[in-house]
Design a protein that fits this description.
The structure is a homodimer.
Chain A: E1 3-6, H1 16-29, E2 42-46, H2 58-65, E3 73-76, H3 82-95, E4 101-108, H4 115-123, H5 138-153, H6 157-171, H7 185-190, E5 193-195, E6 198-199, E7 209-216, H8 218-224, E8 230-238, H9 253-266, E9 275-277, H10 283-292, H11 301-306, H12 323-327, H13 334-346, E10 360-367, E11 372-379
Parallel strand pairs in A: 2-3, 2-4, 9-10
Antiparallel strand pairs in A: 1-7, 4-7, 5-6, 8-11, 10-11
Helix pairs in contact in A: 6-10
């Protein structure tokens, strides 16, 4: 990665074109020694689509707004992991030798879709036949996962609450975050229930926003900046849509497969990271992710979280940017936003939320309730 | 390519799951020496999405129906070129060395979407701000292209009609085609006008259907079959959505860029092909494609077509399977269907529509009215 750009996340007045343009402009402007747009060989967009704006052909809109018209642009839609898969495709384009410079953008414009329509628009990313049509929402799916995790491992509600408290606290140092309000465990536990045991403050918000990163082959990257960030390995996996078909309720097989593949390609694994960006769409999801990524033994993510280890300043900071929970979760933007954060952190330019001495990181992006996932490992390259 | 499968195209009773399953089952069954599904490293799906069935997360549905759950699956949405871009991504996965065996499927289930909703669903793949909201439909866009082509080059209405007549004739030898009815130039010219100068028989139909191909690295391919078909080179390009922004009305820059890239990668170009699969969503589109691909000089595709050269048995058969016009055009399936046809033809197994001595071919897939395009060159490999 040689550049990265990010809009604010939140309830924004801008439309999808303006958000894409802003994130891409920022990414190009961030390249230390500058980059002509005509050098971009290929671009990828992660997004559910621009349905709220009655726009389609999202790839063409990225071409126009990034001002790379002419270059091939591929629109990847993998539910909430759209940009994670777009990033993987972008890395592949370079690995294959076919491209030298690749733009990967992620976008969602969600807040102008009416709430009934949005419930459907998002809901179809889960299972329809067995879950959605029976009334099970995403919060409901994750509530089942949380209840089972509590039953199997004795996970206390306080650990879920602590995930929200920590991520809200981290987001206060992220100017792009949707929320900048500190909350307490008592706030989380007292919030209205959405789907017990999950309350309002266990859930990520509905957000608008975009992010973009620029990838280059290693040799070219060194001509554009002295401090590129390397994609050391990518991995991905899939699973059944419906919970009932899966081997476990408290673990996502797609995450485990993705982590295993990424580790094999990178030659090192999640145990080596200085910090992690994980897919905390609900508080329970962060705990499950820590366990699936091998950052905590099965059933022990709660203890790790309650110990303070995953806070900024702790042994293994998780979601220093505030995560989906507090930074916001514009669906298709999230995977690109994670890469943006890692770009800042591994270059030591994350400001007040800097993870001291960060050298390796991972990004973990989940589609639907675990029907797909990507894990990407990053380092600063070199010997 | 080591295998390929195809459903019928048309107004079908099956839903998206059944269509995907049938195409994938057929693709696996077609591998000469068999292929365990567990060997698939990665899969790609080209589709607008399953909105008519109120299903999302299309990648997960492919994983389930192809029975490759676990493997990473990426859903690519590039309007009518969705599967062309999916095929390109699949080829990249192998070129990068990351994957040995890749499934690429394409699907659309269109006929159960109400016509008003379908007009919107498809219409958003064109420009919305300047075209759709002013009432310009896809037929209208291509009518403008046709009118301009006629004015610039004196292209006669009979040449457009001949494209339809030829493709309907070819489709009669394709058991999967939507139409098996011979038509005459007089029929085409007398059909009700949809958007003058285009009439009903100048337009491709609304179709359901799916197709799938299996890709393998060259060495592995030779262990699976003695007659693999090689992807010699892929190319793609983008352009502005709105016609008014483009450099020409009678030529698609995205096609020209895609052809140039594919030729560079393959080391040979469209002038070497034994036949071509081109994106004839409207009759005029086939003429424009022939010129953009360099198969006819600018303004001379009409003459080439009227000469009979593009008929089966002619010097350069175009769309031997009937093309989008008569085989049908289930949006996201088309790029995969073209690859299926080339797989059959280059193995000499195309039956009554076999192009004698076919050794090289191209597939040309367009997104929207030319906002994106892919060109893929195929041969039988070897020295």
């Amino acid at each position: 990665m040689v550049g990265a750009g990010h809009t604010r996340f939140g309830v924004l007045p801008e439309g999808p074109r303006e958000l894409l343009r802003a994130a891409c402009d920022a990414a190009f402007a961030s390249v230390d020694r500058g980059l002509e747009r005509s050098r971009v060989d290929e671009a990828y967009l992660g997004s559910l689509g621009f349905s709220g704006w009655q726009l389609g052909n999202a790839s063409a809109i990225l071409a126009e707004e990034a001002r790379v018209v002419g270059a091939p642009v591929t629109h990847v839609e993998n539910a909430c992991a759209s940009a994670g898969f777009a990033l993987r495709s972008g890395a592949r384009a370079i690995e294959s030798g076919a491209a030298d410079l690749v733009l990967v953008a992620g976008l969602e414009k969600m807040t102008d879709v009416g709430s009934a329509r949005r419930r459907y628009w998002l809901g179809v990313s889960g299972d329809t036949e067995w879950e959605r049509l029976a009334g099970l929402t995403f919060a409901g799916v994750y509530a089942l996962i949380a209840a089972r995790h509590m039953a199997e491992h004795g996970t206390p509600a306080e650990a879920l609450a602590e995930v929200a408290v920590k991520n809200h606290d981290h987001a206060r140092s992220n100017p792009n975050a949707q929320f900048h309000k500190a909350i307490t465990r008592a706030d989380v536990l007292a919030a209205p229930r959405v789907a017990a045991p999950l309350g309002l403050l266990d859930c990520c918000p509905v957000s608008d926003g975009a992010a973009a990163v620029l990838l280059a082959g290693e040799e070219i990257a060194r001509t554009l900046t002295d401090t590129p960030v390397r994609i050391a390995g990518t991995g991905a996996g899939s699973d059944y849509l419906a919970l009932q078909e899966r081997s476990s309720l408290t673990s996502l097989a797609a995450t485990r497969r993705a982590a295993s593949e990424a580790s094999r390609r990178a030659g090192w694994g999640p145990d080596r990271v200085s910090f992690a960006e994980v897919h905390d769409c609900f508080t329970i999801a962060e705990l499950v992710a820590l366990e699936d990524l091998g950052l905590a033994p099965p059933g022990q993510a709660a203890e790790l979280t309650l110990s303070g280890a995953t806070r900024l300043g702790g042994r293994l900071p998780v979601n220093p940017d505030g995560g989906l929970k507090a930074k916001g979760h514009p669906i298709g933007a999230t995977g690109a936003s994670q890469a943006y954060e890692i770009f800042q952190q591994l270059r030591g330019s994350a400001g007040r939320r800097q993870v001291a001495g960060a050298e390796r990181a991972l990004a973990h992006n989940v589609g639907g309730s675990g029907a797909s996932a990507t894990v990407t490992l990053f380092d600063v390259g070199g010997p």
